[in-house]
Amino acid sequence: MFRPDFSLKSELASRQTVAATHVGFVLSGVVTTLLGPLLPALAVRWSLNDIQAGYLFTAQSIGTLAGVSVGGPITRRIGWLRGLGIGFVLMSSGLAALGVSSWFWGLTAVSLNGIALGIVLPATNLLVAGVNPARRAESLNILNLLWGFGAVLGPVIVVPLTRAGGIRTPLMLLAFLSAATAIWLVRLPVIRVAEVSEQHGKSERFTSKTFRTWFVLLVALLGFLYVGSENAVGGWIALYSIRLIRSLGASGAWTPSIFWAALLAGRAAVPVALRFMTPEKLVLAGLVLAASGLSLLVTAHSAPALLAGIVLTGFGFGPVFPTSIASATHHLGTGASRAVNLFFAMGTLGSATLPWTVGFLSTRYGNLRTGLAAALLAGVALIALQLGIMLLLTRYRTARFSNHVVEQRGV
Questions:
Q1: Apex 178 CA angle, 175 and 183, nearest 5
Q2: pLDDT, tens digit, for every residue of 372-397?
Q3: Beta carbons of 153 and 258 less than 8 angstroms apart
Q4: Sequence spans of domains, the chain
Q5: What is the CATH number of domain 203-403?
Q6: Burial (Cβ within 10 Å: 0-12, 13-18, ≥19) of residue 126
Q7: Cα(35)–Cα(352) distance, rounded to whole angstroms?
């Protein structure tokens, strides 16, 4: 069995690895959100109703869940770089197949993209964290900002190329870039990656099993609803904009870029915001802002109201994902890895469920506005969940303080 060499052979090898993974993560951001700007063209090409279109999101999410399941064993067996190379080869194959497929085979192609993303996204995060052991937080923040840049860049690439030459042109271009990234990764020198340790003081961890269990449960539910809501908005907003505001015409296909740009801005603002509030309060503030934006989206009757809703929703969603992960790591200590994996898994299930639910409700009631109301309800539920998390933390701190006082008196 191949055992990857996990020691850094040189600073040059480390820099080459970081450069390749950064380029690959931008591409992953484009592919993750590709269905959003591509959906109007696919719906016309395959004569899809909204519930059929929703199956595309479900197929990609199920593939991602499968990729997460097999990605860990693959990278442990053959090494990080070769594992990532396999992921990008699968991505290239899925993109190419999507460009020449019917709707049925298109579902298979989208699933293949999902498997690729399930391998690439977690492996890249762990690899970059290991290559930069002294600057993990900074390195991962830069990496995920690059993913956001890819999400913004996607519609800029896809929409003009689709208009000029149909959907095959952008898909074949992305397939070529994915294959080139795979070749780049597997040709890099093998490196040794530092173990990703979780160093937390005992006072920062939950010491009560009951509190830990409830905290993990609430965080997992938050992941399910958050990732599902984010994908529902990012996936359906182009078609919704085109249908809702006729004056926007085909330019509505650009609205996913606005959403992802606003989300990117929200994530970029996290370091500044944390100077003035705790992580838990920042997540709550972001969710309240996002729910306000979703309210504007489902009630909009003009282009300004629609665009304001898109920006508020994206900016509010921005801090939720990275800050929730940081909070889980902080409070769970050595149990954080399992909780974060559960967060990712539940998020993947959410992305398979909520976007499809939007399509189902739209087809059932003949109105995409009604479908997106499901995302608004999820946004309200997210606020309740975050309040529950904050209440749980408050009760735990109070109980721990009371126990400390009792122990001191006993002494």
A1: 125
A2: 999 999 999 999 999 999 999 888 87
A3: no
A4: 13-189, 203-403
A5: 1.20.1250.20
A6: middle
A7: 13
